[in-house]
Amino acid sequence: MQQAVRIQREDFSQDDEIKALKAGSKRMGGIGTFLGCARDFSEGREVSEISFDAYGSMALSEMKQLRSDAIEKFGLLDARIVHRIGTVRGGDNIVFIAAGAEHRVAALEACRWMIDELKQRVPIWKKEITPQGDTWVMPHP
Amino acid sequence: MRGEEVIKVLFFGPVAERIGNGVLQIAHRPGMRLQDLRDGLAAQYPQAFEIVCFTAMNGESVRDMSIPLPDSSEVAFMARFSGG
Fold first, then answer.
1. Between A74 and B2, residue with greater pLDDT
2. Please, what's the largest Cα pairwise distance for chain B?
3. How far apart (Å, rounded) are the C-alpha atoms in residues A130 and A115?
4. What is the fold, at CATH topology level, of the domain defined by A5-136?
5. Is residue A131 classed exposed, middle or buried when 0-12, 13-18 and 19+ CB atoms within 10 A define those classes?
6. Disulfide engineering: A111 pairs with which of A32, A89, A103, A141, CB 3.0-4.6 Å?
7. Which chain B residues are Cβ-neighbours of A53 within 8 angstroms?
C-alpha cells in the first residue's frame, strides 16, 4: 500500500486512495474527498499546461503535519493527501485529499480544512503556460 | 568555496526564476543572522525579494529573522505558495 501522504509526478487513482483509506477501519461512516484539477482557462487566457515546482522535503513534511493536525482536530479515523508536481494539462488531476471519519460532518469539514490549509502552508508553486507566455500564479494575501 | 563555511540558499518557482538560479552558496560569517543573509541577497536581487513572503531554515518555517544562522544551514526564501 502506498504512503498516505505523497508528492509525485505520476497520476493517482481516487479509487485506490479511497480503498486504502477504508482499509484502515470499518468504523468509517463518512469519507469526504477533494479532487483538484487543472483548468485550461484562467484570468481570461487559455492555459495549455500547468507546471509545478516544490520545496520537496519541506512540502512533504508540511503535508504529513497537516494530515496529523486534521486527524487530531476533527477526530478523523484516517486521512490521505496526494499532490502532483511536474507538468499537467487541462483536465488532469493535481491534488487529492480524503478524510475518513465516523460521521459525515467531520469528514467533510476536515476535507475542506485540509485543502485550505495546504494552499497556505505547503511550499508548492504553479506556473500557467499559455500561448501568450508563462506566468507564475501569485495568490493575493 | 571548498574549505569555507557556507550557507546553502534555496529558491523555488517565481523567486528562482527572478534570481536565475535555484541554489546559491553564501560564505558564512561568525555572528551572522538570518536578517543579514536576507539583506545581502535582497540588495543583490531586489526584484526577486519583492515577492519573498516566507523564510525557512533547515526545512522549518521561520518568522524571527534575528535568529543566529549556524554554519551549514539550509535557508529558503519563498514566494506565496500556490499549490493545490
1. A74
2. 41
3. 26
4. Aldehyde Oxidoreductase; domain 3 (3.90.1170)
5. exposed
6. A32
7. 12-13, 16
CATH says B6-79 is which class? alpha beta
Question: CB of B18 within 8 A of CB of B42?
Answer: no
Predicted structure pTM score = 0.94
Domain regions of chain A by residue span: 5-136
CB contact under 8 A, A139 and B81: yes
- Chain B residues near residue A139 by CB distance under 8 angstroms: 80-82
Domain residue spans in chain B? Answer: 6-79
- What is the ipTM metric for this complex? 0.93
The x, y and z cell numbers of residue B78, run together, are 519563498
Provide the 8-state DSSP code for A25.
Answer: -
Per-residue pLDDT for A111 more than 80? yes
